């Protein structure tokens, strides 16, 4: 199969190249990347036969396949919520050709057997690259370190107990020390469970008014502080997952200024929504950490602009409808986010907060550097790993049309601007024009 993409505007942070290009792909490998001064349009919009596909892409963008460093693919164990097959297909629809999957499966990914299982399934049924994240502690219990060296050798690229914090600072210290020796970062779910005290939303006037137990911002910030201090003293990198508060941003900013090896991610729901989204007891907006206030949202947007937050990840957390269609207090936390994350983030570009290159860096080169996964970008001789995007194309989120088994999105009915039209991953071609 030969694919010829003409006149796309390419932004590739890996090769540091930008401009109008023709890109040819032959049998899954990029055979030509030609930057050009002038657009010489093809007559046809796109034509294909069984062996050749030509795409006239004037006005469209080409980016390296996006990387989502925080997803829950739920397999093994929770296949009724998501599988590696459905989760990776959903990822492709969202523009991601690489995803990391968190360890809170059943069994937990705290031993090489589970890692091998995930990798084998991904190879068999996956649509994109899957990078498992190993558990920091056995069973995510926070008590005993998992066999991190063996997990790394089996294919884990990072370690996290995401969903659960590592409450014991000595265990976190040891994890950081090990992670340094095996060159795979710790990703920290920052939450002090004593302070969270089974809360279900952000603590404040609204939680009081709704009669729901709140989670104070201090619950997150105290652990961000602790982990930054551990990272500083024991000289090991730490990556802070799903940053949700202004206070966390301030701590990370100060730590970065002091030269601490800290990186951070946030998710689209923290810069597009506030706690108001749960005011009607909408369980699809129930997430951990919880949606916060306007002030926090603004601080996160500013932190993305100032590069205090390096990465945007979806924290794709699909759940079955029966786990959400219950009283608010009982509903599970999480948003099915991989299909909407990039389009929601494009708002930052449409609103003039980030330029397109800055946004693409947060979805490509930054996560790849943090995880130390080698990505070539769009260059001749490399495996095809790229997407074609119409950043102006509007579409309406319809939860029933999500490919993910998780229909738990608070963005149902939202009009978003920016659609992934094609993804090319090795020999796989995904045509998502509708
Ligand atoms: O909302 C969340 N859902 N936050 C987490 O940290 C875990 C995740 C899940 O696994 O459902």
Description of the molecule:
- The structure is a single chain.
- The protein is of the alpha/beta class.
- It has two domains: 2-62 and 379-431, Urease, subunit C, domain 1 (Roll); 65-371, TIM Barrel (Alpha-Beta Barrel), CATH 3.20.20.140.
- 29% of the residues lie in helices and 24% in strands.
- It has 13 helices and 19 strands.
- The chain has helices at 84-93, 112-125, 148-154, 169-182, 193-196, 205-210, 217-234, 246-257, 268-272, 294-305, 341-350, 356-363, 365-371; strands spanning 2-12, 17-26, 29-35, 46-48, 52-56, 61-64, 66-71, 96-101, 129-134, 158-159, 186-188, 201-202, 214-215, 238-240, 262-266, 311-312, 385-396, 415-425, 428-431.
- The strands form four sheets. Strands 1, 2, 3, 4, 5, 6, 17, 18 and 19 form a nine-stranded mixed β-sheet that branches. Strands 7-8-9-10 form a four-stranded parallel β-sheet, with helices on both faces.
- A hairpin with a 3-residue loop joins strand 4 (46-48) and strand 5 (52-56).
- Helix 2 packs parallel to helix 3, helix 7 runs parallel beside helix 8 and helix 8 runs parallel beside helix 10 (294-305).
- The chain starts with a strand and ends with a strand.
- 53% of the residues are buried.
- The mean pLDDT is 97.
- The structure holds (4S)-2,6-dioxohexahydropyrimidine-4-carboxylic acid.
- (4S)-2,6-dioxohexahydropyrimidine-4-carboxylic acid is lined by residues 72, 104, 162-163, 189, 287-288, 317, 333-334.
